[in-house]
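sanity check this record:
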Amino acid sequence: MAVPASIRFMEAQLLAYKRVWKGSLFTSFISPTLYLLAMGVGLGSLVDGGGNSPAFGELSYLQWLAPGLVAATAMQTSAGEASFPVMAGIKWRKTYQVALNSPLSPVNLVSGLLAWVVIRLLTVTVVFAGIASLFGAFTLSAAFMTILAALLTGIAFAALILAFTSRLEDDTGLSMLFRFGIVPLFLFSGTFFPISQLPAAVRPIAYGTPLWHGVELARSWAIDVPTTFPVWVHITVLAGFTVLGLLLARWGFHKRLIT
């Protein structure tokens, strides 16, 4: 049976990663542990010591924080994979132009890159959720649901950032993306505190971000926290961002590499 061309391109990303995988050990294993120790256990002891906050109910801060951190980590992983490596393939190393001399098309490149991001998301979120369950943040069965919510979040970001990167002429836009996009989203999309604590004028901005919907979904599925909107709304929003990003990414890759 013939292997789809997009899978072949995904395999190329995997082969390249096999040469540098040791460099990702810190972010895959040590970083989740440090996050949970510093924020969930360290800061959490101060939060819990002050009495249960109405925002957290009877949950400890660690239990409330961990699902959101898994979703936020998925966002960061997708941003890392869909930004500078893609810019390198398009502009600096020009490996994508070389790939198009084979039967691959721009659509195959986008699909293969997204498939590769899914693999990276699985490895990162499984490790993070597993470590969080060892800390007692949630059960192993809940960890599976947290991973699923994080995957939906990461895929949405990957599609959007692939589209964004495909239209850039240099990496200045990527630096701006991380400085004014990814970092603020990480801090102010409900990962560390409920967005109800944000000024009323700012909350609608958070409602429109993929990360907030992913965090809401992760908490709902992992620790049964009620969501602001019905679960199907969060899933629909994430799916909508994914479809929009894929359509724009395919158009962007074709325009950049073909026309």
